[in-house]
């Protein structure tokens, strides 16, 4: 009996092992199946059921101009969705309201018929959707209206109404200063003030618990944020929209006139370095002009004759020349190592002074001066330019500033003609803003200011930070050199290459520039020109400095005074006429002493004589038979003159008291209507016209 019993036990053990093996195999099989066969399906499902905290962007701060006008702001827009399967939405409630909801949506958006909206909503409910998209980019006023729609007015949990706020950046002035305002978009390089002050404007993001549903859409779990976002601060820029508008219009007009490739303008306040206007325009493929690149900040080019100011100042600072120093320029052509240099005047200028050479922009004059005094020590000239800080960027806050290039004497490309060509603007490179910064220092008696675009940071109306002016260099040259430089710049406009900018109300100081540039980047094989004018105004008390650069004018007019100068003048005229602080304070008018005799009204002669007799005022009556009179008050008496009244003609009642005027006019058959108080200032019927009985006459008193 023991043997079968033992066999039975073993069979049960084997069976148990077999079952365990089958179970283990099943587990392994299912694991492999889930991992490799059904893996994508389960991973997608897990992904769709993800619940986590998502970032909520804060409302970005605004950017304002110098006078608190809005340049950039974040406008809230909404994405509206519908949960047609919300727990509180019974079939009876949904079916009774879906028609009116569809009709309301159709009336609001005008993009679908009520039938189409109803079919969409019913299908969403039948398919079990919980986050059905109704509309993107919904404005606040439309959202407010939707809150009152059938079903939606019941809210999220009872009516399935869901909306998600987003913020869209807008520029109220559209393209005005658009490149300077810039943008800060994810995945793109930050540009302008938006990029430079991202941390200030961005604020602090919040957190909200959301779940991912089918289709990869994130749906809020509830209406409350775990961490509320903190809005960004506001940036008040130095830009003045009014001046900016003038600058862009003046630049656009000249670019179109000369069919130029591109151009830029910068206007800077002398004492502070604050930029009041900066415009950059380039011709597009459609021959229209757009602000596509910040040439003023980022484009380093050979400046041409505007650099002559620095060259003359270098020679003056080293004591080599003065304003009355004479230079022989010859017949307008001079060879430097067999390379010819030309002056613009046919036949040349002959022997002229330094001051005159600068005024007429003689290339040969400055080239001979620099070559003569620095030929044995060319690095001395380079070092002087560096003393003026022309080899360093200005360090402005917005990105993309071009790097200045001043060649050293030990550079492998240095040659015998480098000095004379550098002296009048070649073989070195500067941006328009860097040139303006140098000229602004001359206008500011030698103190070089850092250009700035930000005036202050404010939050909820309170100042968080004021940006103080930054001095780049206290004195770029001696006082004597600065004074002589200022005289030369004034002479250019008074009797030089820019006499077309001379005006009667205020003086301008500046320098024209014309440079040849390679046209290959504009699609040409030959060379083109860069016309410029850089200066400041008013010359006697500089308030603003300005540079204008126009590239590749194509109508055979390329000199700085004719292409860039008019832009400068138009901007300067506008700024001068609208800037109160530029003008001298008005002195009080010297008012003559008023006569001691009181001024009388016109009217009935007997009443006037009675009053004059009572207050003991002397008077002279030119016609004793006069009935209606007007008076003329002198220092010690009153002259009384007859005012003729012709029957059937409207009399002149200006200056009369209302009582006398009404009496006279109504006795002549007119209906009188009076407004105001005092004496008659205006009458609606012209004196001398024929009277029509019963016609209305209006008297305005003052």
Automatic annotation (TrEMBL):
SMART domains named in the record: PASTA
GO molecular function: carboxypeptidase activity; penicillin binding
PASTA domain boundaries: 644-702
Xref: InterPro entries: Beta-lactam/transpept, Beta-lactam/transpept-like, PASTA_dom, PBP_dimer, PBP_dimer_sf, PCN-bd_Tpept
Protein name, as recorded: Transpeptidase family protein
PROSITE patterns given in the database record: PASTA
Keywords, alphabetical: Carboxypeptidase, Hydrolase, Membrane, Protease
Database matches in Gene3D superfamilies: 3.30.10.20, 3.30.450.330, DD-peptidase/beta-lactamase superfamily (3.40.710.10), Penicillin-binding protein 2a (Domain 2) (3.90.1310.10)
GO biological process: cell wall organization
Subcellular location: Membrane
GO cellular component: plasma membrane
